[in-house]
Amino acid sequence: INAEYGGTLFGGNWCLPAVYLAGMPKCGSTDLFEKLTWHPELRGARSGKENHYWARTRIGKSANHLIKSRIAAKRTFRSYLASLGSVGQNELLIDGSQSLAWDSMGWEEWYWYGGNVSDGPPYTNAQLIHRITPNVKIILILRDPVTRLYSDYLYFNNQAYGIHENRTTETFDEEVREEVGRFRECVSNHNLHYCCYSSENNPKVRVWIGVYICFVRDWLAVFPRDQLMAVSLEDYSRYSQSTLNRIYQFLGVSKVDQGKLGVFLGTAKKANKRPVNERSKGDMRPDTELFLREFYSPYNSEVARLLNDTRFLYKK
Asked: Which of 13, 45, 48, 312 is deepest in the core (most CB within 10 A)?
């Protein structure tokens, strides 16, 4: 793949990613990325895990999903290539931009082409990547959408993101019910695809991201099943070594010494571990959890059916 899409724009072997760890947010993608790139044949970009070029900066959106205003200029493809860095002959480059799987927010403004707005975006990120690099491998790491949402709600409330609100279990319950009600109303008036990509979705309570069926279906519409691997965060957390071995096999890289891998996993720190200020908020209210489980249940069933994997039912 690297040889097929490489070039010598700046001297050396410059390549597009051979692997996309495309999603989802707050599902362990940062930790998985760090563990994957321990393998000598897998390498991250020079700019780090998340480039956000395809979903955001190529069309003039900020890499920060909380900033809605247009940035000064669209990022050029040349600058994107430069940010990736060169790769060795036997290395595969991984782009860990978790926005790729789901983020077409603002498509009505950024790249609407005059078609029927009610149908949703004129093209998906999956179609874009397939058009440019049809032979890449796609990894989606998913998590129970209920716990994902709560983690997401608390995590993106800090000074680094320009936000400092008093978010509590009570505010979470109130805002979740409002956003779920709005999403259900959208589905009653439009198709699900439109609602999952609608710019009316609330970036503070990202309920729609947990409707995984929208995004898994879009990726499998263009990529064959043997080029997409869905990973359960719950399985990855419990069985890290066997999960990594399955991913290495999926990517076609060399087997690694299991003793060395075990030592690495035993000593490596977990990335993006839930901070103390989040843990101090406690668990979400039981009635909120029940409400969300009822909302997500039919969508989880569709994902499990599509992937032929009951792990993604997320039944308690």
From this structure: 312
